[in-house]
Amino acid sequence: MSYKVIVWGTGLVGKAVLRHLLNNPHYEIAGVIVSSEEKNNRDIAEMLGIEATGIIASIDSASVLARDADVVAYFGPSAIYADINMANLTAALRAGKHVVDTSMGVFENPSRAPQELLDQIDQACAVHGKSFFSGGIDPGFANDLFPLTLLGVCAQVEKIRTIEFIDAGTYPDQESLIQMGLKSKSEDTAVLSLEGIMSAVWGGPLYMIADALGVEVQETREIYDRWFATEAVDYAMGRVEVGECAAHRVQLQGIVDGEVKIIIDHYHRLFPDAAPDWQRPETNHVHANRIEIDGSPRIRQETVLEDPITGDGNAGTCLATGMRVINAIPAVCDAPSGILSTMDLPIIGGKGVMH
């Protein structure tokens, strides 16, 4: 069966997906929605740097949503623009399309999402009996699918930790990283240091892991550390001055039976030698996703997602983030109406990706 897909959003993730979706026999691109006039009414080939496809991008979302399609793959802006994302997601559902999403990580674990947002998606799903799945952008699968799969082979678990190592200096969306706290000074208040922010962003997968283990999280603890540059350094996407944050560590801890048992951890470095005393991946100098499970068996899994030509970890991760939800489309279309999570989906392969 072939699925007709409307791709909404052509940023880092959207463009990476489009390039590969064109060659997948299980999917047909029914339309592409863009947000800027410079991309409007242009062949998507122009933004992808390939030969003409005949697929014309449009800024008129209503007209594209009116087309015959099974699903909208939504690759919108970050959750900072939640109002825009929610309006677009509900519009797609009300247009009679299933929706897969990478923009609103708050829905990665629906049981932890704000009720107001849940109600909006639930009501939109109910109009035509459609389903909604958000894979998260962190990437979500590294904080739920990876650890949940490994937990399924364990006889005993004492502690589990997921770690994301990012080469932040080559990440194209520098604005979002700076908003989080990179390039801030010691006297500045970083957004991620504000109480409750980490729990709001990463509490979903932490509690999903707890649910999978059948344990109760009594509380979460948030730890934010910054490493400040001791000299000015030019990096791929900018420059960090002396005294500015060149690396930060973001850690959310889940307390079970009075002890730290579940950890969601992040290390972001603007240049490879930043924060030399902090933990690094074992298989790449700066970029990887790692799962550590203390128990029986003891597990250490590290995954490096790279662009096959350039070796860029950010490009590889953005593509994988998008393909996680694309490959989930058949399962989402077959699922009952409503909001889905990783726990609701079967094992998902990659139909059509070997071609």
Summarize the structure.
The protein is of the alpha/beta class and 355 residues long. It has 11 helices and 15 strands. The mean pLDDT is 95.
Account of the 3D structure:
The chain has 355 residues and is an alpha/beta fold. The protein has two domains: 3-135 and 328-344, NAD(P)-binding Rossmann-like Domain (Rossmann fold, 3-Layer(aba) Sandwich), CATH 3.40.50.720; 140-305, Dihydrodipicolinate Reductase, domain 2 (2-Layer Sandwich), CATH 3.30.360. It is built from eleven helices and 15 strands. The protein has helices spanning 12-21, 44-48, 61-65, 82-94, 115-128, 140-143, 145-151, 174-180, 197-213, 313-327, 329-334; strands at 3-8, 27-33, 57-58, 71-74, 98-101, 131-134, 156-167, 219-228, 233-235, 238-240, 245-256, 259-269, 288-296, 299-303, 338-340. Strands 3-2-1-4-5-6-15 form a seven-stranded parallel β-sheet, with helices on both faces. A six-stranded mixed β-sheet has the order 8-11-12-7-13-14, covered by helices on one side. Strands 9-10 form a two-stranded antiparallel sheet. A hairpin with a 2-residue loop joins strand 13 (288-296) and strand 14. Helix 4 (82-94) packs parallel to helix 5 (115-128). The longest helix has 17 residues, at 197-213. It is globular.
